[in-house]
Amino acid sequence: MVNARISVEHVVVIGASAAGLFAAAAASGAGARVTVLERDETIGTAQPRYGVPQGRHPHVFLHRGLQAAEEFFPGLRDDLMAVGARPFDTAKLAWLGENGWSTRNASSYQVLSTTRPRLEACIAARVAELPWVTIRNPVTATGLTRSARGWSVILSDGSTLDAELVVDASGRTSRFRRWLTELAGDAVRTTEVDAKIGYSTRVYEGDPDLADVPGVVIGPTPEAPRGGLALPVEGGRWMIMVLGMGEHRPPRGNAGFDEFLTQLRDPALAGIAARLNPVGDAMVYRQTSNVRHHYEALPNWPDGLLVAGDALCAFNPVYGQGISVAAAEALALREVLRDGPTTGWSRRLMTRFADLAETPWSICTGQDRRYRSCPDDPTRLEHLSNQWALQLGRLQAHGNLRAARTLSGVYHLMTPTRQLFHPALIAASVAGRFRGYGPLTARPAGLPAA
């Protein structure tokens, strides 16, 4: 029996953050009329938004996300560059990992460093230019019911919007689980992994004069659970972020921020801050748990409903995976709508979304479970994966370019995880254990010592 095609003429997207904007572009690209609902007033401006509290902190647009975004908005990279986004090869970062400084002799994927408000403003401007797309704000979706057309979204002013497809992209505060329970009585299983990570960011201006170093990352470890990074952003400014786990989280206030910088296992970030001039106060953020709602496990998922972005799977923002996963989800949505959805299409697509989230979820939760501040111990598989990742990090710190490229490719969602077990890497690991790994990568000369 051949499933009948389902017509999707009107799509309502709840939320105009990155995931919602990508979903709107996907539906428009498939020929549907789209209404985007956003509760914030400042959508489309380069100002921090209440609905995106981590927007005041560093954001790196990973290569897979940029690649996907360019499919929706050709030239978006140029748009971001025109407003000051800073491109760099992540392999050239000064990165202090658990085994030492990563080699900078490899090449990796180019990323763009920009503030989150500027990134979303550029994407929103491109979405506003798309045919048949309307962004309505400030307005809040307060409920969901069935209608003759498929679904009816109830708005805060009492009006309703009917559509064949509703996409919830409202982020961590999504009400969709409650709505679904009210509609179908199905309870949704949720998994949360919380290492109680907190971070604090302060913006600076000036030139730290780091020679050929585009940015610095001081990675935390289970033994030294404090770290941080310094990255350039638009406007000739720098963002310096510090982070810690549990009782080691950075305190509030500028004095506490400055003191925390001096407590890291390398003085580079404190030295960079000393060369720059602060702009504004340090801003703290602590909502960093990984939260995954297993909608794909519901046996009777209704057609015409989708959940995307952080509303489906929210990652610890420290790892920078969320926007790239949301862009990949939107590409999958556009593909299905262009091909013509058939009965059961929404459930199949939710399963695909879950698959897209699997690798970054494993990366984020596998790392967070290593810290004593996380109440969940790593599973046996995660423990083995972490041990192998540490071994690859050791190879990278001793100059192995294949290890560096592979780790970077997996992190950027560009390389399948099976490449982590390439025979050449296994052989290099065995050789290193028996014959030694060679000299460690030196601390980059351009970094301040204090």
From TrEMBL:
Q: Which Pfam families match?
A: FAD_binding_3 (PF01494)
* Domain of life assignment: Bacteria
Q: Which GO molecular function entries does the Swiss-Prot or TrEMBL record give?
A: FAD binding
Q: Where is the FAD-binding domain?
A: 10-335
Q: Which residues cross the membrane?
A: none
Q: What is this protein called?
A: 2-polyprenyl-6-methoxyphenol hydroxylase
Question: What's the source species for this entry?
Answer: Nakamurella panacisegetis
